[in-house]
Amino acid sequence: MQKTPQHEPEFIRKVPDGDSMERDVCATCGFVDYKNPKIVVGSVVTWGEKILLCKRAIEPRIGYWTLPAGYLELHETAEDGAAREAREEACADIEIERLLAVYSIPRISQVQLMFRAKLKHPDIATGPESEAVGLYDWADIPWADLAFPSVGWALRHYFETKDRSDFAPFSNPVDGL
Amino acid sequence: MQKTPQHEPEFIRKVPDGDSMERDVCATCGFVDYKNPKIVVGSVVTWGEKILLCKRAIEPRIGYWTLPAGYLELHETAEDGAAREAREEACADIEIERLLAVYSIPRISQVQLMFRAKLKHPDIATGPESEAVGLYDWADIPWADLAFPSVGWALRHYFETKDRSDFAPFSNPVDGL
Ligand SMILES: [Zn+2]
Ligand SMILES: [Zn+2]
């Protein structure tokens, strides 16, 4: 992995060797300023028929409800990242079942990998990024107060397939981009 | 998205606001040097029973066989990225069917989204990154000359499920990390 330049970079636009697109390349040291899409990992976590939701204590969308999810870190598998996010945001100990959906949010260059998971035990608690956490019946989900569109997509996709194990993962709903 | 600093950065280790891990943060301008895992998108592309393979014209693993795959670009959906890679590497016009597998390669901080796809027509040709492209019967796949372990995983996972449409996407084989 390239090191961020330790000097004032002098960027020029050029196609790096072996690449096919113009990038910002430092004329002094050759550093290529690749801007990559980011990977978000998260999960729809259940305990029996109830679904784990977290009320955001941080911006963006502070005070709105979300699923445990966040950026994948370096040197982490997608599954480990989703489990870490559940631990950080809801002190939840989860077991990943399978991939539920892959949502692409090209406007913000984000790909979201959403898993289906189960709580290993029902003990949950607020982490530093949550002002509340709860286990919700389907009928009680606060649809009007969800933090992001993809939270609603993942919940609906979960519900549609909750009694099945074999299905193709969902991508964005047709009306979703 | 943050702009790369236009001056000599003075990095200090600290936990940025709203974050939970130490990062390199520029003491002068606040730039956070996030290092993110990268997303590779690719596909197992078929024409009838034959599978599209590309012989690499570039490092790493020049001269070895691979599936059309590469880094997802900014502002691209995962599916569009996989189709672009097939176009760039094999001049192939493909239709994505579904997600076949998500492989995590934590050692190099990579997540690979591998799709199952069909050629729309059998016209293929070498692109700038390929020294040869071909449509291979299963029995003729050059197993000993595949470029990367995950190429073999995707081929085997494809073959295992080629007559099914409903299945959970694969992740790394248990012996694969
Ligand atoms: Zn430089
Ligand atoms: Zn700075």
From TrEMBL, chains A, B:
Gene3D superfamilies: 2.20.70.10, Nucleoside Triphosphate Pyrophosphohydrolase (3.90.79.10)
Domain Nudix hydrolase: 36-169
Source species taxonomy: Bacteria, Pseudomonadati, Pseudomonadota, Alphaproteobacteria, Parvularculales
Family matches, as PROSITE patterns: NUDIX
Listed InterPro entries: NUDIX_hydrolase-like_dom_sf, NUDIX_hydrolase_dom, Nudix_N
Organism name: Hyphococcus aureus
A Pfam family hit: Zn_ribbon_Nudix
The protein's name in its UniProt record: NUDIX domain-containing protein
Domain of life (superkingdom): Bacteria
